[in-house]
Structures are given as structure tokens and as C-alpha cells.
Specification:
121 residues; alpha+beta; 4-stranded antiparallel sheet; two-stranded antiparallel ribbon; 1 helix; 8 strands; 39% helix; 28% strand
């Protein structure tokens, strides 16, 4: 496993830029694309063939833990949201800002009937 910079002359092989996932195949000799800031890594084919099953083994071992973690996160989120909802209802002081009672004040109506009260419209 060797590291090479972009723009460097290299021999035959496959080179990976691990920061952005690009792969460059060089058939004979060539120059790696990009400027000197890009770093490429060359893995030998044997190492790549051996790494595949090892990475798969780690995935198979980690999969049950990921499933249990996902279930616990979903259940925990549901329980906490219910608990906060109940606590919010207990702490509430009855103010509902979305409601407005704009009916106006009652005024005395002076007219034919004497002292009758009527709502303003």
C-alpha cells in the first residue's frame, strides 16, 4: 500500500483517491490526474481480494447491533415524545394563543325599548 500525489508519474496499477472515491486505472505508465493536493493510494490486488471477506465479516457481526440500536432509538423516541406530551399537558396554564375572543363589549341600547342591551357587531 503506497501513497501517491496527483500529477505524479506512476506505473501500471489501480489507484484510489479515498477522499472523494475516484478510481484511476493506469495500463502502462501514466500521470495521475489533478494537482498535487489529491492523494491516491495503490492497493495490491491480493490485498483487495483478502480485504473483501474481512470487511464482510465485520458487517455481518455488526448487523445485529445496528438492528438493536435502531429499534431502541425508535422506541426511545416514541416514549420520550409521549412523556413530554404528558408533561406539557400537566404544566399547561390554559393559555391558547391561537384562539381569539373578539366579541366586543355590551353597550346599552337607547331607543324604543328603554334600557335593553345589545352586542356590537
Amino acid at each position: 500500500m503506497l501513497k501517491y500525489k496527483g500529477g505524479q508519474k506512476v506505473g501500471k496499477g489501480t489507484y484510489w483517491n479515498l477522499s472523494d472515491g475516484t478510481r484511476v486505472d493506469i495500463s502502462d505508465e501514466g500521470i495521475l490526474p489533478r494537482n498535487g493536493s489529491a492523494t491516491y493510494t495503490r492497493f495490491r490486488p491480493g490485498i483487495v481480494l483478502l480485504a473483501g471477506p474481512v470487511i464482510g465479516l465485520f458487517y455481518v457481526i455488526a448487523l445485529p447491533f445496528m438492528a438493536v440500536g435502531t429499534v431502541l432509538a425508535l422506541v426511545g423516541k416514541k416514549v420520550l415524545s409521549r412523556m413530554f406530551n404528558i408533561l406539557g399537558n400537566l404544566v399547561s396554564f390554559g393559555w391558547r394563543p391561537s384562539e381569539a375572543h373578539l366579541t366586543g363589549k355590551r353597550k346599552k341600547h337607547k331607543g324604543m325599548g328603554g334600557d335593553k342591551t345589545k352586542k356590537e357587531e
